[in-house]
């Protein structure tokens, strides 16, 4: 079975990739930077004898091109779930930021997740697959810095 991990290059996403790889799950790892994904792919394939397909996608802008994800799923075992430990913030995320930055933060942390689930919903329902989203403590405590990020989580 295959899991898609969106936000797989570091932190929780990387740890989840290692956990599912240790359970012999094939993986589609998505991040905005292949420099992080390629070494992770090699490591997981060698240690766990699984298939890993890394995909570089930035979710700051829509629409999302799903073709690389769909092509990856065509050559892997059936989709068992999608995990979304994705998170994007910016040091300039303070009240009054530019609209374009607000849109990028919301696209990455919320809208892209909805679009991905919608795109693969029929397959996910057919297989009774798992969808796991992740929030942030930023969403429940007031703050000025990263307020847009907090509201998107």
Task: Tell me the distance between the termini.
Answer: 28 Å
Poorly predicted tracts of residues:
none
What kind of assembly state do the chains in view correspond to?
Answer: single chain
Q: How would you sum up the major sheet?
A: 5 strands, parallel
Radius of gyration: 16 Å
Compressed to H and E, one letter per element, the order equals EHEHEHEHEH
Tell me the fraction of residues in β-strands, as a range: 15-25%
Helix- and strand-based class?
A: alpha/beta
- Kindly report the average pLDDT value: 93
Describe the global form. globular
Percent of residues in helices comes to: 40-55%
Count of DSSP helices?
5
Explained architecture:
The chain is of the alpha/beta class. Helices cover 46% and strands 17% of the residues. It contains 5 helices and 5 strands. The chain has a 5-stranded parallel beta sheet with strand order 3-2-1-4-5, with helices on both faces. Helix 1 links the parallel strand 1 and strand 2 (26-31). The longest helix has 28 residues, at 99-126. 32% of the residues are buried.
Condensed summary:
Helices cover 46% and strands 17% of the residues. The chain is an alpha/beta fold and 153 residues long. The longest helix is centred in the C-terminal third of the chain and has 28 residues, at 99-126.
Write the layout of secondary structure elements.
Elements: E1 2-6, H1 11-22, E2 26-31, H2 34-48, E3 52-56, H3 67-75, E4 79-84, H4 99-126, E5 130-133, H5 147-152
Parallel strand pairs: 1-2, 1-4, 2-3, 4-5
Helix pairs in contact: 1-2
